[in-house]
Amino acid sequence: MFASGPLRLTLMILVPPLLASCANTVATQPGAPVSVVPPPVNAAPVAPAPRAQPRAQTAIAPSIPAIPQAPPAPPRDEAGVRAAFGEPRLVRKEAQSEMWRYDGVNCALFVFLYRENETILVRHMETLPKAANEAADETCVAGIRARKAS
Prior knowledge:
- Helix content is 25%, strand content 20%.
- The chain has three helices and four strands.
- It has helices at residues 6-22, 78-85, 138-149, and strands at residues 90-93, 97-103, 108-116, 119-128.
């Protein structure tokens, strides 16, 4: 019994490619003899190529940007001010307070000290010129500190 109609058409389309994919033959001219060449019997075994030794990996340290050092803490008392900046260029004394001025290359540092019992403590430091949002320009303070060190 043969299939008819749509089933026959489906089989005619699907079966030949399926059969062709199952065939494991070498394409030759029709009617030509097919010859299969066996591998040589006395052939020396082929050694696998030597594996390349993996190179030792050296650890590359990630480049970490240098962390800027924080400026030194401002001095808290008379001795700390003298140790940090040296002797003031100008001293103005009043009853309970003193103002010391230090001159930098392009700026001036004013240190305001107040007496508490027997000690004189720093209450405020200011530079001129200065930025609008800070009382003391750190570059000016560092410059005056450096002048004292030299």
